[in-house]
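Sequence and structure are kept together here, with a separate record for every protein. An example record follows, reproduced without changes.
>
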Amino acid sequence: MTLHTFLAVFAPVDQSGGGRGLMIFVFQMAAIIAIFYFLIIRPKVQQERKHKDRLQQLKRGDEVVTVGGLVGEVIHLKDDRVTVKTGEARVVVQRDRIADIRAPKAVEEEKKPA
């Protein structure tokens, strides 16, 4: 089955000529693809880009949450590895396994009202 035959099967039936019906169908498909792109795909790509930028700006003292749910403070950075102090333990995690970056504890304490 060729692409033209496939498109012709789903095109609305038009008694005056098949060209106009096929053109409407192609326009409808393009509109659906555009809607999916702008409502689903584009925001996801922008969110991933923003997260990647935040991971590159990671520094000592930042509080992070890993994908596994560990919450801790960054104490050492090396290429794609990050050492996180969580409780009394130190854990080495991959940089891309950090789900969220929170403000450092010192900054949070300064913002709290007395």
Observations:
- The chain has two domains: 3-54, 59-111.
